[in-house]
Amino acid sequence: MQQATMEAAVQTSAVPAVNADQRKPSSGLTAAQYIVEQLAEWGVARIYGVIGDANLDVLDALAKQNRIAYVACQHEESAALMASAEAKLTGQVGVCMATSGPGAANLLNGVADAAMDYVPLLVLTGQVETYNIGTRAKQYIDQQKLFSGVTDCSELVTHPDALPELLQTALTTAITQGKPAHLSIAKNMYRLPVNGTVKPYPRHLKQELLVPDEPVREAAELIRGAARPVLLIGRGVSGAAAEVIRLAEQLPAAIVTTLPARPLVPNDHLHYAGGLGQAGSEAASVLLSESDLIVMLGATWWPDEYVPSQARVLQIDKIPAQIGQGHPLTRGIAGDAADIVPRLVRELEQSPAPNRLPWKARIAEVNAAWKGRIEAEANQKTEPLAPQLAVKLVAEACAENAVVTVDTGDHTLWFNRIFQAKRGQSVLLSGRWRTLGFALPAAIAAKLAQPRRQVVALAGDGGVVQTIMELRTAARMKLAFTLVIFDNGSYAMERNRMSVQGLNTLGSELESPDFVKLAESCGASGYRVTTEEEWEKALQLAANSSDVPVVIVVKVADTMVPHTK
C-alpha cells in the first residue's frame, strides 16, 4: 500500500504544470512595430511628437503604415498640449511622443494640463540603452521620477516581452482613470522581436455601471424638498445636456456652468445664469448665494470664494474621488449623469414639487439684469476696442458647431464673462493647469480630429508667444483655422492684480513681435485690426482661406476685469 502511494506521488510529480515553460506566441513584430499596431487597434488616429535619437525606430514604423498619422511638432510641449486637447475634444486617448532627457522634460507642461483636467493621455518617451540606465550617459534621467507628479502610471520597458502587458496597462489606466499614463522605452529594445499578441480594444472599458434605484430616489427627495435649487454643471454632463435643461425647467432651477460646459446650455435660455467664478457672471454668484440646494453635475471646479456656506450640495460625478472635494457635501452619487438625470426627471414627475414660482421670478429678474449689463459692456465704442466688444465680435463670427480654443490670460476672463455660446459648439481650454500657449496647439489638434468644424483660437499677446511657432506646423499641414490675438501690450491679468495690491508692475509690460509678419513668415496669413470695420474685413478674408491658418491681431484696451483682487 505504501509502495503504491509512493509510485502515485512520483507519477503526480512528473506531470508538468499547465502551460509550464511555454513562451507567449511571437507577434512577428519588433517592439517599435508592436507599439504602432497596438495603438492602431485601440483606435488611435494620431501621435504628436518631436524627433530624437531615442524614438527613430517608432517613426520608421509609423512611416511604413497608414493607420496612424504622425504630427511633427516644433516643440514637445506643443505635442503634449495637442494630444491633451484632442483627448478633451473626442474623449479618446491622446498620444504624444518624445526622445529621452530634454525631449521628455519638455513634454511635462502639456502632460500636466491633461492630468489636471482628467483627460486620457498616453505619453511615450525614449530612454537610453538598458546598459546605460542609472549612469551618467548623455540625456539620461530617471523618467519615472520625472513624470511621477503628473501621471498615474509610469513604467520603464527594458525587455520586449514586457511591452504587451505594460502598454495594455498604460492604455487601460489612461482611459479608465482619465489621467496620463507614461512608458519610457530603452532605445535598444525597439528592434527586438516581441512575444505576445496585439489585443483589440476591450469594449467593457466603456461599459457604464448603473446606479441602483434607491440613491436616485433619495436624490430626488432632496431636490423635491428644495425651495431654491441651482444646477451647477460641468463638461461631465455632455451626454445628458438636453435632460439637464429639462430638469432645470421642470423644477425650475437656475443653471450655472463651468467654462468648458458653456455650450451645453443655450446661453440665452431663461434659466441660464452664466459662468462660475470671477470670470463668470454676477448673476451666478447671486443665485448661488441665495440657493438652498446646489446640484453639481459633472463639475470638478468650484473656487472657494464662490462656494456658499449655507447651501446644501448634492453632487453626481463619474469619478467617486471627485465628490465632495473642496466644498460642502450633503449627498454624493457616483455615476454617469446620462443615466441618473433622466431617472431624476421621471422620479420628480411622479410627485408634484413645491410651488417655486417666487424662485422662478427671482431667476428671471437676476438674469435679465445681468444680461442687460453685459450687452451694454459689449457694445462700448472705444479706441482701442473694448475687450468686451472684441469677445462679442468673436462670438458672432463663430459657427453653430465651432470649436473655440481659449488660451490663459486676461482675455479668458472676458471670454467667460461675455461670450454667448451656442449648442453644438465646443470650448477647449487649460482648465486647472492654466498654462500659457494652449490655444494654438489645441486648434491644430481640433482641426485634425474634426476637420469639418470651424476652429477659432483665442489667445493673448503674452500667452501666444509660448507656442507661436506651431503656426509653421499648421501651415505645413494646410490647416485652415483662425487665431485671434488680443493685443493689449501687457500681461494684463498679472499687472492689474499687482496694481490692486499696490505692487510694482515689473515684468508685466510686453514688447511683442509683429505678429502679422511672423504669421506670414510661417506660411500663414495675418491681419491687424483696430476697428470694427477692419474686423469685418479680416473675417471675410479668413472665411475665404481654405488651406492656411489666418492670424487676426486685435488691438484692445487693457480694461481691468471686475472683481480683480
TrEMBL record:
Superkingdom to which the source organism belongs: Bacteria
Keyword Hydrolase annotated: no
SUPFAM superfamilies: DHS-like NAD/FAD-binding domain, Thiamin diphosphate-binding fold (THDP-binding)
Thiamine pyrophosphate enzyme N-terminal TPP-binding domain boundaries: 30-145
Domain Thiamine pyrophosphate enzyme central, first and last residues per copy: 216-344
TM ranges: none
Transcription regulation is among the record's keywords: no
Domain Thiamine pyrophosphate enzyme TPP-binding: start-end pairs: 407-554
One Pfam family of this chain: TPP_enzyme_M
Keywords: Thiamine pyrophosphate
Record-linked PANTHER family: PYRUVATE DEHYDROGENASE [UBIQUINONE]
UniProt record similarity statement: Belongs to the TPP enzyme family.
Name of the featured protein: Thiamine pyrophosphate-binding protein
